[in-house]
Design a protein that fits this description.
It comes from Panagrolaimus sp. JU765. This protein is of the alpha/beta class. The protein contains 13 helices and eight strands. Helix content is 35%, strand content 9%. α10 packs parallel to α11.
Length: 432
């Protein structure tokens, strides 16, 4: 499917609300100052600084001029407890590297260790991640935006009472819970190289959320879940869609699988809103990955989802070669703002992170193909056929009473005005 120069969204209106958000396009971009300053540890592969590097590129390419930029509040304890267990949240609220020895008796219970260490500010970092996804979902609920972006989100491995895979609180699950307050059916799409196990687990028994994950599977690759036979249970049977892939996936193979499967999901499930997890560890040459996607190939997934005309939220996720994560999410921001054919491939001289992008100093360099593609056309066709057969088993999702849209608009229009003003004050003029 080749989208036109602009995409008409199902939520497009002519009620004057664009004036409330400064006449910007209906794209809300969530970023909180300081989110990149948190540190998992010197040897840990997860680097929150990648979010700040991406933000700098977004500003220096001028992409903020095509979005409404908002600094979201941190998620509250109560908001995060919509999914996470109170004792789990209390643990993270109280524990620090200095007093961690006092809480060691809980480490096994909450899966604390090398992958998910105790670091300074872990609760604040997680509440920032969740805050962006909550506010993005609420803005979609209110009909104020068609696309919400929270690159600090996407932490898809966290469970109700367990940290996992560098993830502590599951902003995606909490964001989807918000979307379900207004939308009957929500589709979750995960293009991280790792299976979106935490999100699947949260919605495994419901028919109101469909989870679709394309991921590396086999040879003990983390987290070891996401087989083709993992299709959901109870009311949720056939609402979990898994595409277990072998190493070496390239752009052509990925597009040939992604687009027809997503189209089939849309045709059978008919979602009212979408959450797209854009984990960048599926890029070629990722420190922890084993796929061969280019930045533009990864971005084609975003372009295709945008072309569907369904309101959606984009969140981050994995990605452990910092410079490529920043490149990827910036490029995908340019796609939704329809500036990808306008911006220069050269990294702007004005970004303080310029040296991160040496030696190419380009936004979309050629990424090394380290691994041969182990996914034959026959194998991928078999995945498609079995997925489509499973989708034919779907029953229509239930109709439920939703909150009135005016409720959301009344609460958020003034908030967005204030947040937009506050964020603009914090952006330094040279970055414009």
């Amino acid at each position: 499917m080749t989208p036109g120069p602009t995409t008409k969204f199902k939520s497009d209106k002519t009620d004057g609300n664009d004036d409330v958000i400064g006449g910007k396009k209906r794209i809300f971009y969530y970023y909180k100052d300081g989110v990149g300053d948190f540190h998992y540890g010197s040897q840990h592969p997860m680097k929150p600084q990648r979010i700040s590097a991406c933000h700098s590129l977004v500003l220096n390419y001028g992409l903020h001029n095509y979005m409404t930029c908002i600094e979201p509040p941190k998620a509250s304890f109560e908001e995060m407890s919509q999914y996470h267990a109170p004792d789990y949240l209390e643990f993270w609220k109280e524990v620090t590297p200095e007093n961690a020895h006092e809480y060691e008796y809980l480490f096994n219970k909450f899966n604390i260790g090398e992958d998910c260490p105790v670091f300074d500010g872990v609760y604040d970092f997680s509440s920032i991640s969740c805050g962006g996804s909550i506010e993005g979902a609420r803005s979609i609920n209110a009909g104020l935006c068609d696309v919400a972006i929270n690159w600090a989100g996407g932490l898809h491995h966290a469970k109700k009472s367990e940290a996992s895979g560098f993830c502590y609180m599951n902003d995606i699950v909490i964001g989807i819970i918000e979307l379900l307050k207004y939308h009957q059916r929500v589709l979750y799409i995960d293009i991280d190289i790792h299976h979106g196990d935490g999100v699947q687990e949260a919605f495994y028994w419901t028919d109101r959320v469909m989870t679709l994950s394309l991921h590396r599977f086999g040879n003990y690759f983390f987290p070891g879940t996401g087989e083709m036979t993992d299709i959901g249970k109870g009311n949720g049977k056939y609402y979990s869609v898994n595409l277990p892939l072998r190493e070496g996936m390239d752009d052509e193979s990925y597009a040939d699988l992604f687009q027809p499967v997503v189209k089939a999901v849309i045709d059978h499930f008919d979602p009212n809103a979408i959450v797209l997890q854009c984990g960048a560890d599926s890029l070629g040459s990722d420190r922890l990955g084993c796929f061969n996607l280019s930045i533009k190939g990864h971005g084609e997934c975003v372009r295709y989802v945008k072309s569907l005309g369904i309101p959606f939220m984009m969140v981050g996720g994995g990605g452990y070669t910092l410079r490529n994560v920043a490149r990827c999410w910036t490029y995908e921001t340019s796609i939704v703002t329809e500036q990808d054919d306008v911006i220069n491939n050269a990294i702007p001289d004005t970004t303080e992170y310029r040296e991160f992008f040496a030696p190419e100093y380009t936004l979309c360099p050629d990424l090394p193909r380290r691994i041969e593609n182990g996914n034959s056309k026959e194998y991928l066709n078999a995945l498609k056929l079995e997925t489509i057969e499973n989708l034919k088993m779907l029953k229509q999702a239930p109709s439920v009473q939703m909150q009135d849209e005016d409720y959301f608009q009344h609460n958020f229009i003034e908030y967005i005005k204030k947040s937009k003003k506050n964020m603009q004050l914090k952006l330094t003029p040279p970055l414009y």
